[in-house]
Design goal:
Largest sheet: 10 strands, antiparallel
Distance between the termini: 37 Å
Helix content: 25-40%
Number of helices: 6
CATH class: Alpha Beta
CATH superfamily: START domain
Structural class: alpha+beta
CATH topology: Alpha-D-Glucose-1,6-Bisphosphate, Chain A, domain 4
Strand content: 25-35%
């Protein structure tokens, strides 16, 4: 399974300057899954037992991502709708009026797979009076996530950046809950220019490790694919289209987590959907606000709008 789309497989697409996805929205979605999972752990302690990512869950995840990638290729065909609003004029009108539209990617989300759940949500927003070159530098400030999205994002840093791929680090935690668990994670993004008005990006987690007992004397890092299974894998696809006097941003955010216990499934599943929808909607709104703020004259020298430095950085050691 090719997690990041091979460049040679994409019909006439050019690689240009380094541009990345709106990870602000993506990490809010991750935090929503993390928060909900931690709630389940607190209310039903037996779900906190250590688990392992099962081979059958990983296989189902890879097959699901392959299917999503096939849909990405379809969207790149000339004259084919690129973002969802391209094929729905009424949706584009709602977005231009200031609405943010969020929906599950399928009829049964989260989708049950062997020994796991796949959460897959689409969100789209419109940023008026903006261009791609206004939007993209703002949403690629990885090092600022620890300031903009605290306390859930404890630390963030660029690991490496090149013309066609970025790598970055995130330490995630929800401090408002009793469970002292953090996620120490690495991510990779590839990004491609379709034409002067269209860009898309693919982002995936390359490493997620739980830190048990975070913030205590006994905190320790667990091996990969071991722990409570709050988030096993992440994958996202973001499309940017400049038209109608602004930029449309569509994000598909996908997460693999452990399954919900059978006795809780019918109670918890509606909560999962509600929290996921609200988180994606809120985070897309935050992306809009960040871009508007960056456009103000007093923000011109702000370091959080400068984007990623191509200089590689060492992965930070989690705080004690």
């Amino acid at each position: 399974m090719s997690a990041v789309l091979p460049i040679q497989a994409v019909p006439p697409v050019e690689r240009l300057e380094t541009l990345t996805v709106p990870h602000s929205a993506w990490f809010s979605f991750q935090r929503a899954v993390l928060r909900l999972s931690l709630c389940i752990v607190i209310l039903f302690p037996w779900t906190a037992n250590s688990a392992n990512l099962k081979t059958e869950a990983l296989k189902a995840w890879e097959e699901y991502v392959d299917a999503v990638n096939a849909q990405v290729q379809e969207r790149l065909v000339p004259d084919h709708p690129f973002v969802l609003s391209d094929e729905a004029p009424e949706l584009a009108a709602k977005l231009r009026s200031g609405e943010i539209v969020v929906s599950p990617a399928g009829p049964h989300i989260p989708k049950r797979v062997p020994s796991g759940l796949i959460h897959d949500w689409n969100g789209e927003a419109f940023i008026p009076n903006a261009t791609l070159h206004d939007v993209l530098p703002v949403v690629r400030g990885y090092g600022c996530y620890k300031e903009v999205y605290k306390p859930a994002v404890i630390d963030s840093k660029v690991i490496a950046a090149s013309e066609s791929e970025d790598e970055f680090y995130m330490l995630l935690m929800n401090k408002s809950l009793v469970a002292k668990t953090a996620l120490d994670s690495d991510f990779r993004s590839s990004y491609l220019r379709v034409n002067d008005q269209r860009w898309y990006s693919v982002s995936e987690s390359t490493r997620i490790q739980e830190i048990a007992g975070y913030g205590t004397d006994g905190q320790h890092m667990l091996p990969e694919d071991e722990g409570t299974g709050l988030i096993w894998k992440t994958y996202s696809i973001t499309r940017f289209e400049e038209r109608d006097g602004g930029v449309y941003v569509e994000l598909e955010a996908i997460v693999l987590s452990r399954d919900i216990p059978f006795l809780l499934r019918y109670v918890v599943s509606p909560i999962v959907r509600r929290v996921s929808r609200e988180a994606l909607m809120t985070s897309l709104r935050q992306t809009q606000d960040a871009i508007r703020s960056a456009a103000k004259p007093e923000a011109a020298s702000g370091r959080c709008t400068k984007g990623v430095s191509p200089v590689a950085a060492k992965r930070p050691v989690p705080a004690q």
